[in-house]
């Protein structure tokens, strides 16, 4: 595991964007696993700048996102679908037909989970998976629990996650209670993992994930078993390391 300590949010974003850019340059047909949340928006901004400068070409890239809220349509402003268009896809030369997200409106959970697992498989698996981390140690929406969920699944969001994510909604009542998320096996099958974190609120989760016991109650701790993980985090997020 490689840990890069960044000075601040901008530095974290630039260092992470460097790694994603390198992946795209080395493999123009790469499959990128992408994440949402407050953490990666700076990384996406940096990638857009690199695209505008002519350094990175997304034309042959495919993407699969980690998760999507259940019940939100792709044009709902709080959906992760909308987020990806707003923060990345609308600003680069990606073929949107090659960008994949779980369908939040699909009621049939078994159907949607199978469909998404099949998509990940059919595009050849993930070359580089970008991950944020929840304050409770979640990755994607793999919440702390009794077991590691393997494939795409429908999750009842943890109370803590709903509270934390309420900042993106007009009230806590608006936050969906469920989401579709890639499972741990989907994530662990990626060739490379890039975990990003910033701020003191992530320090405990990051420390437990990188150095604590590997238990489903700390979902990101499973990353200790992956042989190509790069962590880019700021000094505050790494303050317990
Ligand atoms: C969200 C997402 C995760 C994300 C995490 C941290 O709920 N499902 O993919 O990494 O929580 O979010 P943030 O970057 O806003 O702290």
How would you describe this protein?
The chain is built from seven helices and ten strands. The chain is an alpha/beta fold and 241 residues long. The chain has a single domain (2-234), classed as Rossmann fold, CATH 3.40.50. Strands 1-10-9-6-2-3-5 form a seven-stranded parallel sheet, sandwiched between helices. Strand 9 (192-197), helix 7 (203-211) and strand 10 form a beta-alpha-beta unit. The longest helix has 18 residues, at 9-26. It is globular. It starts with a strand and ends in a 7-residue tail after the last strand. The mean pLDDT is 97. Residues 35-39, 66-67, 132-134, 140-141, 161, 165 line the site of 2-amino-2-deoxy-6-O-phosphono-alpha-D-glucopyranose.
Task: Throw out a few tags for this protein.
10 strands, 31% helix, binds 2-amino-2-deoxy-6-O-phosphono-alpha-D-glucopyranose, three-stranded antiparallel β-sheet, globular, 241 residues, 7 helices, Rossmann fold, alpha/beta, 17% strand, seven-stranded parallel β-sheet
Estimate nothing, just give the exact number of structural domains. Answer: 1
How much strand?
A: 15-25%
Helix content: 25-40%
Report the strand count: 10
CATH-defined architecture = 3-Layer(aba) Sandwich
Q: Which ligands are bound?
A: 2-amino-2-deoxy-6-O-phosphono-alpha-D-glucopyranose
Return the average pLDDT rounded to an integer.
Answer: 97
Q: Total helix count? A: 7
Low-confidence sequence ranges: none
H/E element string? EHEHEEHEHEEHEHEHE
CATH class: Alpha Beta
Radius of gyration: 16 Å
CATH topology: Rossmann fold
The gross shape turns out to be: globular
The termini sit apart by: 13 Å
What class, by secondary structure content? alpha/beta
